[in-house]
């Protein structure tokens, strides 16, 4: 509820600033965020008596965007991430040169969300980490649902199905909105 109140305050500030700028502001970062956060809070209430698995939550947070190493192409990128994920695959194009940041032709076919789960699985396998099947599924679920809804950038899960999934989605959602406010201030 405190987060929703903060977001509401920021949205009111955006509206106020647009009124002072004679309505020139065309982009409201926090628009529709309050309704979405209330929707997520309502969904979380279904799990209000469940314990949070903090180890799985923190691990999921660390891995949720790691798949961007494969999804994006950037200056200095090596094929190490693909070699790690697919150790038996052969690569034909080794002369790729990137000067900026763009979508990787291979990486975009899968996307960072599934790649995050693949990296997590490979790390567990590569390091021979003993972990319960439930914990692997919990962390995979959190990574797969961190965008919240399928229509929002490829979330592979219809909606979070546990507190950890809701938490990682809400944190990622607020972070993406906050990054947009920082970009607006730089303009």
Automatic annotation (TrEMBL):
Keywords, ordered alphabetically: Hydrolase
Keyword match Nucleotide-binding: no
Keyword presence, Disulfide bond: no
Species name: Gracilibacillus boraciitolerans JCM 21714
Gene Ontology molecular function, alphabetical: hydrolase activity
Gene Ontology BP annotations: rRNA 3'-end processing
InterPro entries named in the record: YhaM_exoribonuc/phosphodiest
Name listed for the protein in its UniProt record: CMP-binding factor
